[in-house]
Structures are given as structure tokens and as C-alpha cells.
# Entry
Amino acid sequence: MTPMFAGLLEGWATEAPDAPVWLAGHRIWRVRQVAQHACQLATRLIHHGLKPGEPVSLHLAPEACWPAIVAGVWKAGGIIVPVDPAAGDAGRVAALAGTRLRIHSGASRNGAHVLGSPLSTKRSRVSFPEVLPGAVAALMATSGSTGEPRLVALTHGNLLHTAGVRAALADHRPGDLTLSWLPLHHAYAFSADLLKSVIARVPVRRVAPARILKALARFHPTHLHAVPRLYEKIREKALAGVPLEGLTGRRLRWAGCGGAPLPAWLAAWFASRGLPLLEGYGLTEASPLVSLNTPRAHRIGTAGAVVPGTEVRIAGDGEILVKGPGVMPGYWNDPKATAEALESGWLRTGDLGRIEDGFLVVNGRKKDLLALSTGRKVPPLPAEMAAMAIPWVRRAVVCGHGKPYPVLLAWRDGAAGSEEEIMLAMERLDKRVRPGRVVFADRPLSVERGELTELGKLKRSVIEAHWREALWPRVP
# Structure
């Protein structure tokens, strides 16, 4: 039987007990320590009355030793529910999961603190349950169409399969180091940074988002997963005269990109300087990997080839359908949503796309189609990507729900460029998806204003509402 996550850690600890696993602040967690802390936590959880298949919410600081805590819950047979302690919906997510126990940690604390239930007075030795691949391992929060959190149930088999595929495709070598900064309560970093690195036996240096640029130069990583905005910042500094090698620490062989579409011009700029940005596609319901550009096979402007073991087909309306060992069994305690998302093992992703020469091209979300007042539906992504192929266009959003024609809202570098240049870039597009005009935004997008998610995804309805007066000025 395939060893579960705690077993992988213990096997590594037997073979190389002093190997570093997790580096956070001034603390270096070695694999022997991580395995020991996981075993101790599992014992304490069972003494707290944890039953196999019971959810445990994780309210962890970013610099906490996540591998030890995750392995400890799983060794005890529990289900992890990672939440963002600073988020307003953390309590709601824990309530939806029905958690009785929660684990808190801090940068200055060793180990984890279990809250929510007193310790058993009978502190006897424990027997750890057998954990099977089909058992639910994690409940990951994702937003439904109404914005209400849904909990995606992912099994041990789901998570270990996709993380194992990442490890196999990553071209890791002895001496590698992954720099991790994205939120671990999201499936992207949880799989790509935490699970994959343990499977591949690659240490992780964990840093705060505000320190990522300094950390790149200081810690000399070989691998990084990020969102497009970070690579835009690196390029800006390079164009200002800072050597790219110095900015990336001189050892970075490739950098992963997810969370939001990667502009082709940005990928081409890095590729021309010897650093491939490897874009992928996935969603939490697929735990989360579906397709990936790899060091050996990548094509700019695509989300890569479908990963081994996974099937993708394109429905008649252009929706991407996914089937394979990474696809969730369903949403936690939500049979209606599960039935809507799954049919005969196929996951309806809600994304539009096509296959070109074996590479997946994602064309945006079905729900993002603009319903014009004429009754026509317009996908916004083709025009947005055409605009962002212009180097001075930093971001573009097509708006127009209920309007007679779409309008493109664009962010540019200073006062560079003009509306005419953007409209000229649209000429290669089908007339039915071209915007009628261009409006330049007067300020950056903001996470705090609700216009972007933590990973940089657009919240289109919020953006359109905030710029409505500029997009559709009132006629006196």
C-alpha cells in the first residue's frame, strides 16, 4: 500500500534524520524533529478524544511548522481544515466543518496547542489508526457562486497523487531549496510547497509575503511558486537596473506561476533571459493540479499539458471537464453542490478552454461571460490577454454586464501608450469579443477594497461597480 504523508516523513527520518525540512525565521526543523513532533501531536489529539474522520481546524501562523502539524493530525486519523486566522470567515469555515478541536501555533512556540476539549484523564499509550488512501484528509474552503464558503473534501489519495505528480515533473536535484510565501491554507501552496517538497525530499524556506523579494536574493532558492504580480515586480526592478540574477538569488532554475492568468509578454521576457515561468492550471476540487508546463515541455500562452493520470475533455459549450485521481469525492455535507459539480466522475470546472497541440489553453470562467443588453454573451479573457500582450499594459478587465457593448478598463505604466494602441492590438480578435472603447484606471486594484483575492484573482463584479462612473458616464 502507498505510504501516507506521516509514513513518508518517517521513512525520510529513518534514512536522513538530520536533513532540513522546514526553515522559518531562525528555526531549522530537521526531519527527525518533524516526525517526532507529528507523533507527539497525534498522541495528544487521541488523548483529546479525536476520532478517525473527525475534522480539526488549523489556525496556524505562516511560519509554524506545518509539516509536523499536518502529519500529526493525519497520523491520528483526523481531517485538517486549514483556515486563515486573520480572515473574517475563519469561524464560519470551522463551523461548516463541524470542528470540535482546533490547533493554534505561533512563531515563538514549539509544537502546537490543541484547544476545544480537555485532555483525557487516562493518559495511556495509544494505537494509531490505519489511514487509507480513500479517507478524507482535508477540507479546503472555496467560494461558491454566492460567495458563501464551500468545503472541498479531498482524500489522502487525491492530495498525494497530485503532489507526487508535481514532484515527478519538477526536475529536483540534491541541494535544491524551495522558497515558500503563498498562503498555505490555499490548495496551490499546500500542494506545491508543502506536500510536494516532502515527497521530493526538498527543504522549504518559509517567508512572509512582505519579505519575498529580499528573501529571493538572500536565500538563493532553486524553486519558487508565485502569482503573476510578483514576476511583474521583479521585471520592474530589473528594468530599473538591478541585475535579474541578483534579484532571483542566482540559483533559480524555473519558477511556477498560478492563481491568475500569466501574460504572454511577461513569460516571454523571462524566457528570453533564461528563466522559464511555468504556468499551470488547477482548482481546489482537483486537489488542485490539472495541467502544467514543465522544465522539459512548456509553451508560452498555455497552462501546459494535462498531467499524467488525469483526463481532460472540452464540453460542447467550451467548458473544461476533468477526471482522474485528483478529483474530489464531493463537497462536505453538500450533496446538491456535489451533484451539480460531478457527473459520472467528471468534474465541471466552470472554466472555458481548448486543447492546442496537447497544451491546455484556458479562456476564462463561464460565469464571467458578459451578458450584453443585446442578448449576446462575450468572454472577457481574449480581449484582456490581447491588451496585456502590450508591455506597458499592466492589467486589463473587460466590463459590460447589461450594456450594449463591452468596455476595457486598463492599468498602464505611468502615462505610457494610448487607447488607439490597445484598440489596434484587438484587430486580430473576432469582432464579437472586441471592446467598444478603452478607459484607463485612475488607481491600482486593491485586496483591501475587495477587488482582488489574496492570490491576485480578479473580482469582476466589484471592479465594475467601483469604476462604473468612468466606464459608463451619465449623459447630462
